[in-house]
Amino acid sequence: MDDESVPLWKPSKMIHQGAEATVFSGFWMGEKAILKKRNRRSYRHPDLDRRLTRQRLSVEVRVLKKLHSTKISSPSLFDVDIEEGWIILSEVEGITLYESLLNGKSNIEQIKKFGGLIRHLHELGISHGDLTTHNVIIGEDGELTLIDFGLSKISPEIEHLGLDLQVLHECLNASHYQENNAIEAMIDGYLSNSSDDSTPLGSDVIARFNSIRGRVRYHA
Ligand SMILES: Nc1ncnc2c1ncn2[C@@H]1O[C@H](COP(=O)(O)OP(=O)(O)OP(=O)(O)O)[C@@H](O)[C@H]1O
Ligand SMILES: [Mg+2]
Known about the structure:
Elements: E1 9-17, E2 21-28, E3 31-38, H1 46-68, E4 77-81, E5 86-90, E6 95-96, H2 97-102, H3 108-123, E7 126-127, E8 136-138, E9 144-146, E10 153-154, H4 158-175, H5 182-192, H6 202-219
This protein binds adenosine-5'-triphosphate and magnesium ion (MG).
The site of magnesium ion has 3 residues, from loops.
């Protein structure tokens, strides 16, 4: 790998080749770490591509810093180079919720817990932007850790909060349809973790989610 340019990084292996990023696991100053490098997209104009890369990395960094002092579990930020388009994070032990649901280790109990975690994130004034079951890691002890904040918004509008739930709804329908009542469990977790003095109210976000669902169904 051409990573002479990334300081203090000892690569071991590629673990994910996505549309937007390539992810390696390795070591950073002796600690187990993840290097995420944004891929250059040749179909985009180079200026636009650089701008998008910078935007996504800088929002990811800002969200990770905000979450660091909260109860929400997320990776630690080790290093970043916004211009070069890479970020190094602590490696979270565990498997994705996606895998865990498919191999039967998780069920709707974890989906309900995930719903509560989403509400907690929303009450901190952050939307995730890509809430699929690939972007949450479940540890041996059942702890859920959120990752992948490149499409997040700080101070989101209620529409972004509703869209978070809609993205998860689509993911549950497409990949986890064997889990009965998954969406109800997610909503249950979301509402039962909502405080009465946080705006927008949990019930208002669910109402927005239902109206997005209706719109999507209508246009499908
Ligand atoms: N800190 C971490 N600890 C452990 N595994 C991680 C970590 N960060 C990422 N991964 C693994 O790498 C995968 C991809 O990472 P991430 O979701 O951050 O990239 P991505 O932006 O989704 O890439 P793309 O959108 O191009 O698919 C995750 O689904 C997860 O399996
Ligand atoms: Mg991801």
